[in-house]
Specification:
Blueprint (H helix, E strand, L loop, with lengths): L1 H8 L12 H7 L6 E5 L5 H9 L2 E6 L2 H13 L5 E4 L12 E7 L8 H10 L1 E12 L4 H6 L15 H7 L3 E15 L3 E14 L1
Parallel strand pairs: 1-2, 1-4, 2-3, 4-5
Antiparallel strand pairs: 5-7, 6-7
This protein binds S-adenosylmethionine (SAM).
Length: 203
């Protein structure tokens, strides 16, 4: 798995572009800056964007090549981010410390994805927000029709509204929808996709 991501990120171009995710941008507009965590952050487009807004940014990903690209992007925008190369089970942040956690296409393995969500929410302060966008289970036929839109081809790695409600059952739901959207993110998210968008506040 790690080899796949390192290979993808070792190209000159950014796999998901240098521009941050649109849902993240619109969600951050409504939130005062604070301390934010970006799990599975790849080449850093979202983390760097948050840093340009003044957030205190932490990120991690299993890919060394992802971190190199993220550092290049951070340097380009003259911001700094704390980016660790690690898998979630190798990381331990202090509990209850983040004001927000942004899960943008953080597709963890099928066997661990719900456990990952549980661990991550323990790092969020009470009242803190989760901002989430990732492919839904209904994405699979769209991906088969157009592989350029990307996303996992394993149904169990994709998400449903019910799974998100269950994984984040101690959250107030501010927004939870499944949308079919047009993606134009770099080389690897191009075309029509079905996504879950969620913003929730930890009770
Ligand atoms: C589709 S990419 C998304 C990258 C980034 N969030 C973005 O939107 O540009 C998924 C990322 O998840 C990372 N990943 C998957 N499982 C992981 C795990 N258990 N620990 C750390 N990173 C993981 C991969 O290395 C990859 O960079």
């Amino acid at each position: 798995m790690k080899e796949k991501w390192n290979e993808r990120y070792s190209q000159v171009d950014f796999a998901y572009g240098e521009t941050s995710n649109e849902f993240l941008r619109s969600s951050l507009k409504h939130i005062p800056v604070g301390k934010i965590l970006f799990p599975a952050e790849g080449e850093g487009r979202n983390a760097v964007y948050a840093a340009t807004l003044g957030w205190d940014v932490f990120a991690f990903d299993m890919s060394e090549e992802g971190k190199k690209k993220a550092q290049l992007l951070a340097d380009k925008h003259q911001v700094s981010i704390d980016y660790q190369v690690a898998e979630l089970d190798q990381i331990s942040y202090e509990q209850d410390q983040f004001d927000a956690i942004a899960l943008i296409y953080a597709h963890f393995s099928a066997a661990t994805k719900s456990d990952c969500h549980r661990v991550l929410q323990s790092y969020l302060k009470q009242g803190g927000l989760v901002i989430f966008e990732a492919f839904s289970k209904n994405h699979l036929p769209l991906r088969r029709n157009n592989p350029s839109v990307g996303g996992p081809d394993d149904l169990d790695m994709l998400f449903s509204i019910e799974e998100i409600k269950s994984d984040f059952d101690n959250f107030e739901i501010i927004q939870l929808r499944e949308n079919v959207i047009e993606l134009n993110e770099g080389l690897c998210h191009v075309g029509t996709g079905s996504v879950i968008r969620f913003v929730g506040r930890k009770k």
